[in-house]
Amino acid sequence: MSHQAKALVLHCIDFRFIPGIKNYLHKQMGLKGQYDKVAVAGAAKNLADPAKPEDQEFILRQIDISKRLHAITDLYLINHRDCGAYGADLAADAVAETERHTSDLRAARKLVSQRFPDVTVHLLLAKLGGEHQVMFESVS
Ligand SMILES: [Zn+2]
After folding, report:
1. What is d(CA 134, CA 121) in angstroms, rounded to the nearest whole number?
2. Tell me: the pLDDT tens digits for 11-52?
3. How much distance in Å is there from the Cα of 72 to the middle of ligand 1?
4. Using one digit for the tens of pLDDT, what is the confidence trace for 55-107?
5. Ligand 1 center to residue 2 CA distance, Å?
6. If you ran DSSP here, which 8-state letter would residue 37 be given?
7. Which member of 17, 48, 76, 84 has the lowest number of beta carbons within 10 Å of its beta carbon?
8. Which domains does the chain have, with CATH numbers?
9. How far, in Å, from the CA of 134 to the mean position of ligand 1?
10. pTM above 0.70?
């Protein structure tokens, strides 16, 4: 193995969250320069409740590749509130939104853990704050 990364990060394509996620990974998680990244609309939804089965396969394949090529040990699944992939109706109900994301993130972790038992999966739910800030809640 010539080069290793610590983690693979999966997050949504939503441009509003990109700078905040990057900042969080660099400054809070200490992952600067040490992670692979996959960005797809809906993030963990593609694992837990994919629009098409091939969407789920695509993500699992990226994890497998990241593991084989870069020996990652950790996976960060980052969903976010007000996500277009989940629809505006869900975003209008904060309680339902929290439940849905928590449920999907946990289902995604279960799926990944079954396929890759040696990968530690971290679950995060992001939301926009004021002045382009992004805040993160850890999901257990
Ligand atoms: Zn989104």
Report:
1. 21
2. 999 999 999 999 999 999 999 999 999 999 999 999 999 999
3. 24
4. 999 999 999 999 999 999 999 999 999 999 999 899 899 999 999 999 999 99
5. 34
6. E
7. 84
8. 7-139 (3.40.1050.10)
9. 13
10. yes
